[in-house]
Amino acid sequence: MTGTTPRSVQYAGLTDVGRVRSQNEDSFQIDPDLGLVLVADGMGGHVGGDIASRTAIEAVNDFILEYEPVPDRLDRTGTEGSVEIVRTAVHRANQRIVGLNHERGLPDNRGMGTTIVGFWLPSGLSPAIVFHVGDSRLYRLRGGRLDQITHDHSLYQAWVDAGRSGAPPNRNIIMRALGVADDAEADVSVQETRAGDTFLLCSDGLNGMVPDDTIIDILIEPLAPEEACRRLVEEANAHGGRDNVTVALVRFD
């Protein structure tokens, strides 16, 4: 079934330190003019997880911004070209964080790092480019159904994919992240958008705390996107708030 073409899009986002952590290592950015939404979850604590997440977002945004102001350049590259732009942007972000770690004398896997998840509309309301590294997620709510579009790069997810044999590993062990090695490849997909769709980007401080059914209940309420973000963060904190929590919404009307 083909949905109606979305005519407008709304954006909102919110981040919170949570109930346990003393520092917020999450970062997010929303650029409606670019059609770009990014969420990053930094790792490293005193080593600089907050710096890593901010650096990743700035690097990805800067690279995409080089292309977006020239519409005919994107028209020539098409969807495949937009996918390559995203892959290169994530590669540049990884290089920048690795460089910061090397400047500090920190070896691979010992410095700051970050996950990232992104949503980009390279030409207005056309199909979206979705990309991620790590376990920050993107969900789509369509027709009352919540689907996880991204696939976690975590040891726990690998255990699930392998059939759940043996004891489950720690959910917090990330198998792919920016800044921890010289190369980090993003998973990239092209997603159709329909009128009525809501896309949710989040750090694991949300999905690790709040059940999917509760997320659905909040997203289907007739709330402004800003209010829906606030409710999601409140739910994460009400369920323990053991991690920083960041949410961003893209709603098609």
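Second entry:
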Amino acid sequence: MDTTISAIGSAVQLFVENPDQWEALRENPALIPGAFNEVIRLESPIQAFSRVTRRTYATEGFSIPENVRVVVLYGAANRDERKYPDPDRFDVRRENVDHVAFGLGTHACPGQGLARMEAHAVLESLTRRVRTWESAGEPRRRFTNITRSLDRLPVVVHQ
């Protein structure tokens, strides 16, 4: 639940900061699934997760031995410029179904289907009710070891 709430908060912040993207979403709500992917690509609610290797893994000139703990940095992977051109730009039209914000493969988040349904429903409802967003102060991050979320996001909604 915390990750879904974090993602929705991040969505509002990104739309406040990128009013052109909010307008694009309002004009074409069919963009909502891709827009949500873009939100969690940029602001991955879970920034890192660790695993223990079961075998040696080698790639691109380096090797990770078996039986060592490694940390997957989802936030960093989702901003890899080799994968995403202009990775720090928020673009609701970006083709980004391959982000790792929900993990990947056998380690994918089992609740991602529910999280997507919830976030899509909230965004759809907001596109019908919110014409524009306006910042009403500085956002404040919640400091935790793993979850990237907001503690405070003051906004004014114009209907």
